[in-house]
């Protein structure tokens, strides 16, 4: 059964507190808040109810209450009538929040007060119930349930608004941190990853390596085949890069034909193996690229300082490749 509340939800804590106070004040058997949007139904006879919602003797269909037993009884002069024994969720200690399969049957419901409301097109039901007379008079009980329902409604609306806001903020942050063309991190997202990793290393020193990469010949592709072909080449490179790196690595397009990798928990020996793997994969896929890398095994060098070293090594590697290419052509 779907949970109405989320673990650790402040709205849930507020609702539970209000429910427990109402149950104690009214001398009720229990209080429950349920989503009534699913088609699981049970019918109970209402002996006493809030006049604004139901009248005495009305039959109410409460959804998501399982295992209802129809009991035949005989009244003098009126023949056989029917009443219903209902298995209702009752937990002796808070929270009184979710209808579940672990139900306690304690006999026919004598007093039941209900109030429904809607949040984001989902229907909810607040139910105060007892198998004996409650402590407050009928008008007091009706008002109490009304106030409880209002509190629950406002708490759930606030939770819903906060969830939507959080989702929008997450989407904005994702878009702000992602490269539109490749889907990997952009320069801003990479800077955030570096900042988070640097803070972790300051608390728990650990090895880290960085790679700075640059596609070879992108300008030639753009000039010869057009920028669309150049974009496709960049996308292919980013895909190969993502497939080659580990799940814990951060890959980024810093701009144009420049890429970077942040590899946590990677010492100098592991970085050398990773560099060998990158060279092999680039050759197998026909994607020429120059790159440099730098490592810190003990956690004393700032990641941004490692990037400076890796960038210089990448530039030296690119110049060497260009010189070798000119030599081969001549």
Task: List the SSEs and their pairings.
Elements: H1 10-26, E1 30-35, E2 41-45, E3 59-63, E4 68-75, E5 79-86, E6 111-119, E7 122-130, H2 138-177, H3 187-203, E8 208-215, H4 218-225, H5 227-244, E9 250-255, E10 258-264, H6 268-284, E11 289-296, H7 303-329
Antiparallel strand pairs: 1-7, 2-3, 4-5, 6-7, 8-10, 8-11, 9-10
Helix pairs in contact: 1-2, 4-5, 5-6
Average pLDDT confidence is 75
Overall CATH class of the largest domain? Alpha Beta
- Counting DSSP E segments of at least 2 residues, the number of strands comes to 11
- Largest sheet descriptor: 4 strands, antiparallel
Just name the CATH architecture of the largest domain.
Answer: 2-Layer Sandwich
Q: What spatial order of strands do you see in the largest sheet?
A: 9-10-8-11
Total domains, how many? 2
Give me the CATH fold name of the largest domain: Beta-Lactamase
The general outline is elongated
Rg, Cα atoms, Å: 33 Å
Task: Describe the model.
By secondary structure, this protein is of the alpha+beta class. It folds into 2 domains: 161 residues, Beta-Lactamase (2-Layer Sandwich); 143 residues, Alpha-Beta Plaits (2-Layer Sandwich). The chain has 7 helices and 11 strands. The protein has a 4-stranded antiparallel sheet, with helices on both faces. The longest helix is centred in the middle third of the chain and has 40 residues. It is elongated. The termini are far apart.
Short description, anyone?
With 330 residues, this protein is an alpha+beta fold.
Record keyword descriptors for this entry.
alpha+beta; Beta-Lactamase; Alpha-Beta Plaits; 7 helices; disordered N terminus
């Amino acid at each position: 059964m779907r949970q109405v509340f989320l673990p650790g939800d402040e709205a849930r804590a507020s609702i539970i507190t209000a429910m427990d106070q109402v149950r104690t004040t009214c001398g009720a058997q229990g209080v429950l808040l349920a989503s009534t949007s699913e088609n699981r139904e049970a019918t109970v006879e209402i002996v006493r109810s809030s006049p604004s919602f139901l009248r005495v003797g009305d039959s109410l269909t409460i959804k998501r209450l399982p295992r209802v037993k129809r009991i035949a009884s005989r009244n003098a002069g009126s023949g056989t009538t029917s009443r219903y024994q209902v298995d209702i969720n009752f937990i002796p200690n808070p929270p009184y929040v979710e209808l579940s399969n672990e139900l306690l049957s304690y006999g026919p419901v004598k007093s039941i007060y209900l109030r429904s409301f809607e949040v984001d097109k989902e229907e909810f039901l607040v139910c105060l119930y007892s198998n004996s007379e409650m402590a407050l008079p009928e008008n007091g009980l009706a008002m109490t349930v009304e106030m409880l329902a209002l509190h629950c409604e406002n708490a759930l609306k606030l939770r819903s608004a906060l969830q939507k806001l959080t989702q929008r903020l997450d989407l904005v942050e994702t878009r702000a941190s992602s490269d539109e063309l490749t889907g990997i991190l952009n320069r801003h997202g990479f800077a955030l990853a570096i900042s988070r990793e640097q803070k972790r290393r300051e608390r728990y020193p650990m090895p880290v390596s960085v790679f700075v990469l640059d596609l070879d010949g992108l300008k030639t592709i753009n000039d010869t085949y057009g920028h669309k072909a150049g974009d496709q080449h960049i996308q292919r490179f980013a895909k190969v890069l993502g497939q080659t790196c580990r799940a814990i690595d951060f890959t980024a397009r810093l701009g144009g034909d420049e890429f970077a990798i942040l590899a946590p928990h990677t010492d100098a020996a592991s970085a050398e193996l990773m560099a060998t793997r990158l060279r092999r994969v680039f050759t197998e896929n026909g994607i020429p690229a120059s790159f440099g890398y730098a490592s810190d095994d003990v956690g004393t060098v700032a990641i941004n300082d490692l990037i400076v070293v890796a960038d210089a090594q990448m530039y030296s590697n690119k110049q060497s490749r260009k010189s070798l290419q000119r030599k081969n052509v001549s």
